[in-house]
Amino acid sequence: MSFADLSQARLFYVIDGPADAPVLVLSNSLGTCSDMWARQIPELTKHFRVLRYDTRGHGKSSVPEGEYSFEQLGNDVAELLVHLDIKRAHFCGLSMGGPTGLWLALARPELVGKLVLCNTAARIGSAEGWSARIAAVAEQTLEKMAPTLVERWLTDGYRAAEPGLTQVLIDMLRRTPDAGYSGNCAALRDADFREQVSSIQAPTLVIGGTHDLAATPAQGRELAAAIPGARYVELNTSHISNWEQPEAFTRAVVDFLTE
């Protein structure tokens, strides 16, 4: 296993694909880990050197004490790229990974080639909602909350048709440390990029899910409209679109990044 000891966190990462191919960084959603991208790897590695990592507080990465910010999450990625001697990379983030990409594209634009923002928004949820989520985790634990939370990640039809793959996500969420999950909830609580996204220069694709309640299609369209030249694609999914429609998702990403 590969780890990078950075200034504020220890990140687990995995690299697949040809050493001489363009680098694509994949950033996981809240409550998952780098494994959430497994269904994309066979196709993506035909075109890219794919760098997946576990966001701090998730998976095998460390769980720094306290609340986090997207400045910290973005700097973790910037330091990981330096650690791996990667000068520039495409970036694809889903849900929480989206604001990480927004921060990078705004604060460290020299690091970002093209940007793919999936099932996300410039402002996800409300401060009150995230504070309530933090309190709920403290009271109930993710172990107990996971099945209910995953109901919002996938459509009813998918969960009925694919109970085994649904269970994989439930188990992934259960393995997420409560403290790491809540630390990242605080980053989402405090983040609002709506006044800044018009400054993004990276070519950008926004992917939305028709049935997504966490980051709605309307929010996705608003995000694409606010970023100069960005385009919008909508898939017939709920929140974890890459898991629910892996082929369509991967095709949209590859077509955008290779055109």
Mean pLDDT: 98
Low-confidence stretches: none
CATH T-level topology = Rossmann fold
Radius of gyration: 17 Å
In N-to-C order, the SSE pattern is: EEEHEHEHEHHHHHEHEHH
CATH architecture tag:
3-Layer(aba) Sandwich
Number of helices: 11
CATH class: Alpha Beta
**What characteristic shape results from the CA principal axes?**
globular
- Within CATH, the superfamily carries the name Alpha/Beta hydrolase fold, catalytic domain
Distance between the termini: 33 Å
Number of separate strands: 8
Estimate the helix proportion, in percent.
40-55%
Structural class: alpha/beta
Describe, in plain words, how this protein is organized in 3D.
There is one protein chain. An 8-stranded mixed beta sheet has the order 1-2-4-3-5-6-7-8, sandwiched between helices. It has helices at about 40-45, 70-85, 95-105, 125-140, 140-150, 155-160, 165-175, 180-190, 215-225, 240-245, 245-259; strands at about 1-5, 10-15, 25, 50-55, 90-95, 110-120, 205-210, 230-235. It contains 11 helices and 8 strands. The chain is of the alpha/beta class. The protein has one domain: Rossmann fold (3-Layer(aba) Sandwich), CATH 3.40.50.1820.
